[in-house]
Amino acid sequence: MANFKDKIMKKILFFVGPPGSGKGTQAKKIAEKYHYRHVSTGDMIRSIAIDPDATPEEKQILHDVNFAGQLAPDWFICGLVFRAVEKFIKERNYHGIVFDGAVRTLEQAERINQYLETKDLNRDTTAVAIVISDEESFNRLTKRRICGECREIIPWLKETMKLNECPKCGGALKSRPDDKEETIKARIIEQGNRALAPILDYYSRLGIVKIIDGEQKIEKVAGEVEKAVVK
Fold it and tell me: How many CB atoms lie within 10 A of CB 29?
């Protein structure tokens, strides 16, 4: 963990971006380096399965998301974010929280900010938008590969597209069976730049968003992300 002394960072970080933008990778790097809790949408939804206080309605939504492929409703995602923030306030085991992909609609952004105001955390928030074109998103998601041995996901980038084996374990690379073109097109419609635009506009009006060009090399993106969240 990096030395946190003398670092000035907001306690709540929201990473947003189109599918395939690399927001998850960058969010994890920041969380690991600065001892922040990394919370992805998938992690939050899966937490319902082991939460003794989860309601029957929440468990039904977990089932619908996992087995029927349905999107979780805004109120459900917001509730999971609220729960994670409450846990952070109570336990203080981390310096802050990095939310990875937790905000996917304008309603979620507005409701979460209203909640943070009640906790006096709305001014302690930064939104990091890693932006790529929808075309780049489509190419990355349809062409990315996975290691047949360690299951490492290999993104489709200039520095990785010529790899024939996993850089982590040397295993053979193969296409992901769930990366079908029609499925990817639907994801981009639901979560791509058109869906992201009103969220970025809202965060811009709040003065909390930092926009990063996600089509640069990974190291360059990582450097700009760090500059955006660390002073």
Answer: 18
Q: Which residue has the tokens 């609220």?
A: 82
CA distance 57 to 68: 15
Strand partners, 140: none
The yes-or-no verdict on residue 203 having pLDDT over 80 is: yes
DSSP string, 151-183: --EE---TTTTT--B-TTT-PBEEE-TT--HHH
pTM, 2 dp = 0.85
DSSP summary character for residue 22 = S
SS3 content of the chain, % helix, strand, coil (to 5): 50, 15, 35
Return the DSSP state at 121: -
Per-residue pLDDT tens over the stretch 111-130: 999 999 999 999 999 999 99
**How far is residue 114's CA from residue 173's CA, in Å, rounded to a whole number?**
45
Instruction: Give the CA distances from residue 181 to residues 100, 126, 173, 218, in Å, rounded to whole numbers and listed in that order.
Output: 24, 33, 19, 25
Topology given in CATH for the domain delimited by 12-132+191-229: Rossmann fold (3.40.50)
